[in-house]
What does this fold into?
Amino acid sequence: MTCVAVALLAACGNAKQITARANNFKYTVEQFADLQILRYRVPGFEKLSLQQKKLVYYLTEAALQGRDILFDQNGKYNLTIRRTLEAVYTGYKGDRTSADFKAMEIYLKRVWFSNGIHHHYGSEKFVPGFAPEFFKQAILSIDKKLLSLSSGQSPEQLFDVISPVIFDPAIMPKRVNQAAGEDLIKTSACNYYDGLTQQEAEDFYNALKNPSDETPISYGLNSRLVKVNGKVEEKVWKVGGLYGAAIEKIVYWLKKAEAVAENPEQKAVIEKLVDFYNTGDLKTFDDYAILWLKDINSLIDFVNGFTESYGDPLGMKASWESLVNFKDLDATHRTEIISGNAQWFEDHSPVDKQFKKEKVKGVTAKVITAAILAGDLYPATAIGINLPNSNWIRSQHGSKSVTIGNITDAYNKAAHGSGFDEEFVVSPKELELINSYADLTDELHTDLHECLGHGSGKLLPGVDPDALKAYGSTIEEARADLFGLYYVADKKLVDLGLTPNMDAYKAEYYKYLMNGLMTQLVRIVPGNSIEEAHMRNRQLIARWVYEKGKPQNVVELIKKNGKTYVVINDYQKLRHLFGELLAEIQRIKSTGDYAAAHDLVEDYAVKVDPVLHAEILERYKKLNLAPYKGFVNPKYEPVLGSNGEIKDVKVVYDEGYTEQMLRYSKDYSTLPSWN
Ligand code: ZN
It folds into this structure.
């Protein structure tokens, strides 16, 4: 699970002037459309040994080599469109200050950010601000050699192919469609299925699944499902298969990393991953995941592969991502306290006993320092990650949970003085709570969500882990969030020294409800409903406690000077409601109650009140903030000795957003335009 707890933070504001600095480090880079680009630091890198620095360097190279895979996974025209835009952007000799050119530049920046032509979060297709006529003459005017033309193709034909995809709003309108009742495959633009219906895809995988298999592989995880001559088959992503050219390069760098691994356990992990990339065998992938779980003593760790399935409307096919990191030893102390008490938390949760784990296993948790973000974690990233995703591996072997300390830090540093809370928080009393405690309680909520929430509870025997289908992700995120909300208010946290007093949690409660009931709507286009799983989960929770608490007036939405505000009248009753919903959500998950999941999500999580939505957008607009954030990566520069050996690796923070994207497109262009 990649947990975008960051969305909360991200919606909470940022620097109005894009000049936030701390210790002379510039955390902000630029702002455009609904996006702000930040920069993060990698403190502690200098202190690594030479061997560890080499390991990080090789793994970051392996990370960057996968970039094109994600573009292609997100839509089959994405690589061609990106390359055409880049060709025009770098080669256009006409007026580069015209409104059309400027709008195309913004569009290209958005394509880079989303790894495709659909919004990274809402998944709707971008509306280009430049004219097709401009784009056509620009393509025809530049040096033909800059364009990535398929054989025999003219620039004009290239334009004819991509123009409708960019400009016609009816073509590929959504990357991931989750609207109930529609064929989710036919109506989703993602490139995971080709030429078949949702029913055919579901039939194909249902036929493979054996309900009595207690250690099932993650069916469909690493392939595109296609129908060729009436036959449905998988095209597997592996060396020699689909995306083979990129995967070969990833493997090349992984092998270099293997040679400088910190210890035999880590070496075995890398070896097994290479084996998986070579064979595409999903049983090997599970073996790799188990080895990865056992590698807990290395300072450096990484994710590299087909990991999260949020981009597949059926939740099976995984997008490619990579994260290279090393442990932040001081901050990890906090999550170790939480993990160390995992059984206590499980035992005392309000969940029905039959759905609890008798023994909570292997909840390792650490705070990490990200060294590079790549694939589906770049430029927008999660701040918490919990892997692996396989249910049986999680219950038999546990999971690794991380929160990314230097990313959280960059958000916080960039957020000072945005005016966001001043606009949306109801009174100085709540504002003071938030200013005093929210940084801390946000982090704690993320820790609880990651370290305990996802790892808690169990499925009843025989329950299909995919039983909740399209509602599975939302229910899972709600489960983890509720676990965190319930416990952030527990006196146990004060006893453990994690919160200073019994008021601190109120900051988290207030921000959570304000976000779920109102302010996350700044990310939704008027007229749209909520699609993204984490946003659905937050509205589900906030709306549910709001409705259920009405008889006792637990939470109110009040009007002051024509503006809507959240008021929490009874924090303890609110906690009780979170507990009640947690018990119900865990029951739904444990029993695979699809009908109940459907009703909860459709009743509370999806619909948007248009009047409130318009008001929030209007108030937000005046703040001139960007609701989404992403990052540029640092550069790692090896210092070579006289024999070409690596003597040192320097981390450099001087690259701009466009500069970095163009460099990546040039140096890590691993795939053909059509795959
Ligand atoms: Zn999560």
Summary: Residues 1, 3, 449, 454, 477, 480 surround zinc ion (CB under 6 Å).
